[in-house]
Amino acid sequence: MTRKTDYALVALSRLAKERKGENRPLSARQLADEYQLPLPLLMNVLKELHRAGILSSRRGSNGGYSLVSLPENISLRHIIEVLEGPVNIALCSDSGHQENEEDCPSCTIMNCCPISDPIQRLNGMLQNFLERISLADLTTLESNLESNLPLAGLGVRV
After folding, report:
1. Model's pTM, two decimal places?
2. Residue 51: helix, strand or coil by DSSP?
3. Which of its termini does the chain have fewer beta carbons within 10 Å around, N or C?
4. Which GO cellular component does the record give, naming just one (predicted)?
5. DSSP state of 99
6. Which domain holds residue 108?
7. Distances from the Cα of 17 to the Cαs of 46, 138, 146, 151, 153, in angstroms?
8. Is position 144 within any domain?
9. Using one digit for the tens of pLDDT, what is the confidence trace for 93-129?
């Protein structure tokens, strides 16, 4: 993930906390100042999240950004894909590049690749895991993370 996603998660977690409290919109400047984030990059991130329907925005002196839906309904996968594009471990794990090597010009062994099928399965598990993790899971101590690890086929604990 890039800084865009890092900053988005920081801002979204703050907006989720605000939703539980006064539920007032917060400006990009307020968020940037509170967490010492670069304002221009944060503004671009917030605009992307707004275009994707994750945030609403209000203009004016009491304006700013707020979450459109409950944090429980916003998946980590959706946030990442809005800012980074599709989640793929390797280029060949993109569904548009699975048919043959002509679809994946940077891969010269697509027809006989020994790891293509395992990579596809691993990529699917990663996408499922990220889909099951919500913004609420990242912002509360009573997180669902540990219970989601076995569902994703991962035998690790956080």
Report:
1. 0.79
2. helix
3. C
4. cytosol
5. S
6. 86-151
7. 16, 11, 22, 27, 30
8. yes
9. 665 544 444 455 556 766 777 887 888 889 999 999 9
